[in-house]
């Protein structure tokens, strides 16, 4: 089963759970969802009405945790640790994985120093083990560890949940793409119409050439027939060459002179 299909099934599972609970009962759903090793998207859970209703209540901290995993990073957690629940080891691992995805959104070459600072990693060996075992093996990123340049070259990174402030630019980007696609479609249709027209013209031109060739063939055939008939008439005339030849082929008799 691929990652996308697994994500869809997990999201559907947790959305159904969240929809059937309310208040403090949602704490277990939030904890399970943010700890699951295969789930990296949380916007759908955040959109569940029962979860939205936690805003402004004594249980709003669970909503904050979900928002942290949907859009935040490990640095965000450290900055707000005093008002958030302590994360379990699986949650801490998940948030570090999500932090790598956030960094990879804007930079395809991530220096080791930056990664160690953002992930709270003590040394290069620990960082490389984390990138290999917890990120690349998990399928959320692909890339190359460059020990000489001390950086991680990102070739692929899974996308995170879009932040609310990103929606405007995303809509604009999609609108621009739609306009470009429409213009491209019009251009393709025009080229197809031109190609059809040229095909028809070529077809007509070919037919004209074939007609001319047939006309030349007919003209040549008529001339050849006329010449042949002319020769037949010459050789079939009476007293013609054949009779003359036959006359010459007969030996002539000499007449002896008469002496008187």
UniProtKB/TrEMBL annotation:
Region annotation (Disordered) ranges: 239-260
A GO cellular-component term linked to this record: COP9 signalosome
Classification via InterPro entries: COPS7/eIF3m, PCI_dom
Transmembrane residue ranges: none
Pfam family for this entry, one: PCI
Basic residues bias: start-end ranges: 251-260
Keywords of the record: Signalosome
PROSITE patterns attached to this UniProt entry: PCI
Domain PCI: 1-159
Taxonomic superkingdom: Eukaryota
Family from the record: Belongs to the CSN7/EIF3M family. CSN7 subfamily.
PANTHER family reported for this sequence: COP9 SIGNALOSOME COMPLEX SUBUNIT 7, COP9 SIGNALOSOME COMPLEX SUBUNIT 7/DENDRITIC CELL PROTEIN GA17
Annotated protein name in UniProt: PCI domain-containing protein
